[in-house]
Write a structure and sequence with these properties.
Strand order of the largest sheet: 9-10-11-12-13
Largest sheet: 5 strands, antiparallel
Shape: globular
Helix content: under 10%
Order of helices and strands: EEEEEEEEEEEEEEEEEEEE
Structural class: mainly beta
Distance between the termini: 31 Å
CATH topology of the largest domain: Neuraminidase
Radius of gyration: 19 Å
Number of domains: 2
Strand content: over 45%
Length: about 300
């Protein structure tokens, strides 16, 4: 799922992912993204030089000591100040492995031993009772001493007969794995979800996250077509998690279909969003990646 340079960036790298997920004939036949159920998180460290590569370790994380299951290794960063790898992953509520999934994080020493592991359940924030939380993004705090997970929370919206919706979520965790802030966003637009996939630090010590926003057609079949067409969304917080702004950077008026998948902050303080687009580029492909550059806080 993800690979990052290791503690010796010219001679090592570190990866995470998952093994032994359920297949489509067993469950979720129309939802392949959820085939992580039944899987286990693995981590691997590789060294290399001009002539060869060598596996230092390739191991499945042992869940028996942490009190919950870890399913899907998602992202990894190396913290040079703490000399450890930090992995974001999907977890269960407890050690039974019962879905729905929740956000989780594990810190490992460079030799592969676990320093700590945490789970961050959706919970109730702002009056919305979330039952699932997905960890799709991870960034190192450039100011040091922490990490930010980005993703989204699934909740039943009482305003629309408890039909599922998604809210954006950004959590900052210190170097010991304890939460320092937990920020959520809910779209005010009818039936609309916010699903987030990329987060990065900003020059002022804050963070910016990019997402897709739109309506799930299968849950809202009678909604107009433009609502079912997704847009690129980004939101900014300061170093304490205070919301600074949230903005859509594409429109659904022309039935375009776009989602923000990743974001980077430039040296000049601007931002670049990697866009998964159904409508940009050659029409024959039905799906392309684009790059959208934003000015400083637009």
């Amino acid at each position: 799922m993800c690979v990052a340079l290791g503690e010796d960036p010219e001679h090592s790298f570190f990866g995470t992912g998952f093994v032994n997920g359920w297949n489509a004939s067993r469950t979720f036949p129309d939802m392949p993204m959820f085939l992580v159920e039944g899987s286990s998180t693995f981590v691997a460290k590789i060294t290399y030089d001009a002539k060869k590569m060598a596996v230092v370790y390739d191991q499945v994380l042992d869940d028996t000591q942490v009190g919950f299951r870890r399913f899907q290794g998602m992202r990894v960063v190396y913290d040079s100040s703490e000399k450890m790898y930090v992995v974001s992953h999907t977890t269960s509520f407890d050690d039974t492995g019962v879905f729905p999934p929740q956000m989780g994080m594990t810190a490992l020493n460079t030799n592969g031993t676990v320093r700590w592991a945490r789970r961050f359940d959706a919970g109730t924030v702002g009056g919305y009772n979330g039952f699932s939380s997905h960890p799709y993004a991870l960034a190192l705090d450039s100011a040091g001493g922490g990490y930010v997970i980005g993703g989204h929370v699934v909740f039943d919206d009482p305003a629309i007969h408890n039909i599922e919706r998604c809210q954006g979520r950004m959590i900052r965790v210190d170097s010991t794995g304890h939460v320092t802030w937990d920020t959520r966003w809910v779209s005010a637009q009818k039936d609309t979800n916010i699903e987030c996939y990329g987060v990065q630090g900003t020059l002022d010590g804050g963070f910016i996250m990019t997402c897709g926003t739109g309506v799930e057609p299968e849950l809202h079949p009678v909604d107009p077509q433009y609502l079912k067409t997704w847009m690129v969304l980004a939101m900014r917080v300061d170093s304490r998690g205070k919301k600074l702004w949230m903005h859509n950077f594409t429109t659904n008026a022309d039935l375009q279909n776009n989602a923000g998948e990743y974001i980077v902050a430039t040296r000049e303080g601007e931002y670049a969003i990697f866009v998964d687009s159904q409508t940009w580029g050659p029409a024959s492909t039905g799906g392309n990646f684009g790059l959208m550059k934003l000015t400083k806080d637009f």
